[in-house]
Amino acid sequence: MRASILGGAGYVGGELARLLLGHPVLDLVQATSRRHTGKPLHTAHPNLRGTGDLAFTDPARLERVDVLFSALPHGEFAARLGELSERAALLVDLSPDFRLHDPAAARRHYGPGAVDRAAGAPAFVPGLPELYRDRLRTADRIAVPGCMATAAILALRPLADAGLVDGDVLVDARTGSSGSGNTPGPAGHHPERASTLRVYGPVGHRHEPEIAQHAGVRARMTVTAVPAVRGVQVVAQVRPGRAAGRAEVWDAYRKAYAGEPFVRLVAQRQGLHRLPEPRMLLGSNHCDIGFDLDEDRIVAVSALDNLVKGAAGGAVQSANLAAGLPERSGLTFPGLHPM
Amino acid sequence: MRASILGGAGYVGGELARLLLGHPVLDLVQATSRRHTGKPLHTAHPNLRGTGDLAFTDPARLERVDVLFSALPHGEFAARLGELSERAALLVDLSPDFRLHDPAAARRHYGPGAVDRAAGAPAFVPGLPELYRDRLRTADRIAVPGCMATAAILALRPLADAGLVDGDVLVDARTGSSGSGNTPGPAGHHPERASTLRVYGPVGHRHEPEIAQHAGVRARMTVTAVPAVRGVQVVAQVRPGRAAGRAEVWDAYRKAYAGEPFVRLVAQRQGLHRLPEPRMLLGSNHCDIGFDLDEDRIVAVSALDNLVKGAAGGAVQSANLAAGLPERSGLTFPGLHPM
Amino acid sequence: MRASILGGAGYVGGELARLLLGHPVLDLVQATSRRHTGKPLHTAHPNLRGTGDLAFTDPARLERVDVLFSALPHGEFAARLGELSERAALLVDLSPDFRLHDPAAARRHYGPGAVDRAAGAPAFVPGLPELYRDRLRTADRIAVPGCMATAAILALRPLADAGLVDGDVLVDARTGSSGSGNTPGPAGHHPERASTLRVYGPVGHRHEPEIAQHAGVRARMTVTAVPAVRGVQVVAQVRPGRAAGRAEVWDAYRKAYAGEPFVRLVAQRQGLHRLPEPRMLLGSNHCDIGFDLDEDRIVAVSALDNLVKGAAGGAVQSANLAAGLPERSGLTFPGLHPM
Amino acid sequence: MRASILGGAGYVGGELARLLLGHPVLDLVQATSRRHTGKPLHTAHPNLRGTGDLAFTDPARLERVDVLFSALPHGEFAARLGELSERAALLVDLSPDFRLHDPAAARRHYGPGAVDRAAGAPAFVPGLPELYRDRLRTADRIAVPGCMATAAILALRPLADAGLVDGDVLVDARTGSSGSGNTPGPAGHHPERASTLRVYGPVGHRHEPEIAQHAGVRARMTVTAVPAVRGVQVVAQVRPGRAAGRAEVWDAYRKAYAGEPFVRLVAQRQGLHRLPEPRMLLGSNHCDIGFDLDEDRIVAVSALDNLVKGAAGGAVQSANLAAGLPERSGLTFPGLHPM
């Protein structure tokens, strides 16, 4: 099967390339970059040295493929949707363009131009196999959720389904620098970013409506940039609204994720690895989820690699389903320890 | 004035030594270490090379001084209190021994032996000049609060005093590795600790009762070990219980901290440094405090260097007051940027 | 084919487990750990959660396998060699026990007990496929070289073979903390290790004789612990002893490594990735090699992941050859970028 | 005494501001920034919050002062020299403009425009008190050497003076990101810079002629960007050309630096702090120097904070001398440990 990447020179594009070059069925035939046209992929992605001869393609020269992954900046995928629909049977978009269904939320976070896109969003199946596996099996258009939203949704949805969420949820999200892309700027300048604990999104983060849409809870996010390149961790403070024991929470999660290939429950009573953290997930498509609790509060913790499960890996997993392939195809790397 | 340090070879002891060696009035005459007796201070604290000839003293050979700072492990200061009282007019303890007044909380977090110490705690003035300046001016015994507690208390007390705290407060605390001391162990082993976001205290942290005692609010803490050696940051999620505008919160903080030499309000609308973070506070005695808010929530953020304002610096500031010295003495280092 | 790991709970053991659990032919049937006997592998290696049910085995209960990898501490493999020889057709040792042939060097760096082991060393084929591929194809005993030695040897041997090394070579090696293992101690305590540039081996490093043995040059190493968990980088300063142009050096390396599956030549004139560095090699079995030069000096740079190409990956690559398997089996992960 | 900073918004300008705001005699009256004119200093330097009301000045509105520090980019100080000479009795330049005396080296590293500046360079006393203290006492123009050059010169000059340098010296320099300034760009983008060991200057570094000029040795530098914001470490490989014992090297250094307020000799036989490293020097004006040796090689190691001893601190120390002030004025911060 032939696959291509639109917007292949960014960090998400590079991660897609890594996964597709190691994929047993999907063959990467094109990756576009205006700036790097004609140069080998490893010009932008030095880890890909030695993986073959593929060079970046002019975005105007897209060939027809079976699966087209788009890692274009916000708005650009939507603008080319008509044309791109003719280029591939399956379109997988990793931008926010067709994530939000609520036009008011879309406008608030992405501006007036996003209202029309919200109208088109229902045509896209969310790239969240844990919630939408059946719909993904027949999807021809997929919209992959945001990285922090994915981590939060996977932590919260089982609790909501079990009636264990009463009122708003406070979601503390911590993120590495790669989520902001590869364009240099003051916020990512190393002397300012290296040791930071920058609370850059204390209130009103744009991933809040995605969480509401998929987990059915009102999340109040606070986002902190932490000293890491890759990785997202979410700590969600949930009021169950009633007595809830450890066993009941375990049941909720086990019921939701039994048999899930990429969700692992991590909730030991003690030890260094008792709760999820991103460092041993880098490069992996896992989302680890765990929790602790006291008498009237559940502290749910989830972690993932923002470029893999939070973007390129979630996209490939979803595409595997839509293409009728084994869901794990190309996604077996387990992560490293120590890291 | 003569000062000494009991427990001079640990990280807090080293920070006390740095501050006292640069203090214009307090002269460091002894720093004890059983292990390093007879060796120069820089054996344990390499930054102190070239600051003089002082060597570690056997703890049994304490001379009488004006101010004795104790950085002994939990329980050891209390065990020697009778003897130490004869060694110095002013005792400043940096351990948890005499912090908690509530015997139930003391027992819960520090074991049955802590109940008696709780009974003795009221004889110690808390080493928090922002709250207890007048009492500190006449104190002969001082107990310095914990580092995360200090950051949380300074962020929350003005809100509580202004009637802006309704119900529990969720306190997300992030901490560097130096707070765990200089004894090697699995949790601090570099390959496990370097890139970690370890939620090691999801519920029930021992600093909660200190916050209740001093800020009058019930704090529910979640503590995460982050990739840093020094520094504590607290993000407190407060429900004001009524409409509260930005101006009112500013007023609450300004009223509390006008003229405070070591509290800075940091709450810009934008920019890289809009909210407090520890990196530009390392070595400094400042606690930076800021906030943002939405319609029904205040997100208060504070930061400090756990070894300075959260320990040795707070101790010296308190001792300055008790000794009738200018409060800033020996504490003028402003921190570095970039870091 | 059945494989097992002796000493499975350490960092090298964990990396072997990761590679073998993903290996298409070699099946991991046992991994020993005295301390963790009966517990699942992910007790020590959290990245391996979800990879199966294997639990650690008592080292006394080793079954017979086709390939036995030993990651025991120095001296222990040699002590059990007789017994272990009956347990597996192929023994692959990752300790220093049978690396050195020169008894004087062995005694100098590893003590008097190492002299006898040096006598037994020639029975072990060095686990360096780039130099000893043909011998590895028929090997029944393999000794994998040290991580820094591997990086240095692969950078220097082609230059030596081309007559481009005149006199001693100065080898500046930089290493992450994982190379020192998972036992906590003062040198690896996070507050001391996190931001260090510790020149802990200014002269006389134990990898020098390995370099002499395999590259035929006298290396003078200086080793610095740098702020990283994984990764080794070597910067070798070579005097060619005669005029040597860029093309000649390229030729030497291309001739040596044409077709090598895990050596990549990286020597661009400019750009961020002009010379090798470990960060995009983490988890990968590649050794990247590059150079620059001026009129009378070649600066050769190599990089690898000390736990993969410098240990477990080199071991699996060598075992693949000895077992008649495709050399890349289980070793296709390309590394991540950004990291 | 009145002092001002030309180019006050960069990292070196900020460090000058920190030092002058804490200086007992020099009063900072102006710091210029075109971009930040009228805004408080802490807009660019958040560590300076609370240190007073000073705002950035338009560079065209420089008042006459006693000491003018210039942290302008390369070439700009020289272009304004005539005008600036009327603004201050003492000019201290921190750019490379008037460092190099050799016109050929100046042209090679800084272009044709640098040749004229080389002709003017002898009018500037080098800001290296350890070598030029007497000349600095009467200087009216000072040119502060580069940060890596300072570290290398202080390590090598005593060896050269003692006849312990035979032939070229290989200088391995490691540097943090702050040395490249505060302008964002690809090389300093956090995802590319955070974990790097980038050998960006394998041969031909521009600090080589400075080392030749001041230490009298031919240095062959290799420069690596390491994971740090602040700090420079130099590892110099010296061939003494004859038998040289530890005592003789100690003597050379002790003779050179006895009584030096900011050079510390650090050369223990063992321990975590046996050789210099930058982490415990951050914020301090110290340059630590140490060494180890074997039969025919001296490995000299030095470390400093590039923004302090390697720039602003060296400038203030030099200005103190020229202004007849105690040399340590404003420079007493000893650095922190752990860091």
UniProtKB/TrEMBL annotation, chains A, B, C, D:
Transmembrane segment boundaries: none
Classification via InterPro entries: AGPR, AGPR_dimerisation_dom, AGPR_type-1, NAD(P)-bd_dom_sf, Semialdehyde_DH_NAD-bd
Active site: C147
KW tRNA processing (keyword) present: no
Pfam families reported in the protein's UniProt record: Semialdhyde_dh, Semialdhyde_dhC_1
Cross-referenced CDD domains: AGPR_1_C_LysY (cd23939)
Biological process per Gene Ontology, one example term: L-arginine biosynthetic process
All copies of domain Semialdehyde dehydrogenase NAD-binding, residue ranges: 2-139
Pathway, per record: Amino-acid biosynthesis; L-arginine biosynthesis; N(2)-acetyl-L-ornithine from L-glutamate: step 3/4
Keywords in alphabetical order: Amino-acid biosynthesis, Arginine biosynthesis, Cytoplasm, NADP, Oxidoreductase
Broad class of enzyme this protein falls into: oxidoreductase
NCBIfam families in UniProt: argC
Descriptive protein name: N-acetyl-gamma-glutamyl-phosphate reductase
